Fold this protein.
Amino acid sequence: MSDSHKTSAMARLRNYFLAGFVVCAPLAITAYIAWSFVGWVDSWVKPYIPARYSPDTYLPFPVPGFGLIVALILVTLIGFLAANIVGRAVVGFGERLLGRMPLVRGIYGSLKQIFETVLSNRNDMFRQVGLVEYPRKDVWSLVFVAGEKHTEINEKLDVEGDPLLGVFMPCTPNPTTGFLMYVRKSEIVMLDMTIEEGARLIVSAGLVAPDPKKKIKGPDGRLIDLANPPAGTLPQPARKSRTASSRPNK
């Protein structure tokens, strides 16, 4: 076998390996994270389950995920109880009790506000992805733009016609850490990509960028991903009506 044939064979093997790695690596990492999360919840919940109610007592092997199921049922039950009058009274009493503790009240209040914003009121979350000229001129950083709100910061630094917007500039490759900044609306270049696409761009350090050619504008002006369009967003082709003029002449 000549050297050229050996080189081409090695190149094909390398390409096959890289293709398999691209397929297997995300699956393996996702499975590892999911399995670790299930094991973490089980390690917290299972010790509090009575032995007679645990399937591990009757089976020769532990049942993974049983603690997670119990935790989901308990959280749902607590939410159901907290939604009625008695539950709201108990929750209110507990919050007033925590509000009298100097250190605990700050931690609890901040965490509660964060979870309520993320899980309950999605209108207060980041709405758009933008670019801000940072850390110097002609160098742009990706930011997540929050909605316009009337806050003390806007009152102190108010400029008519050019409001301050709160933006979060995440760090690569961990988008959960970053910097909170207030920038003039005129200094932000708004992008059409979604929050999910912006997060993927940050996590991949710019390697996974959204393709603007795969999107069109819908009836409401928003961009629609042609690869995964929401139901009912794409216009349906008009049906040809059978009229007398379209019939063949005899």
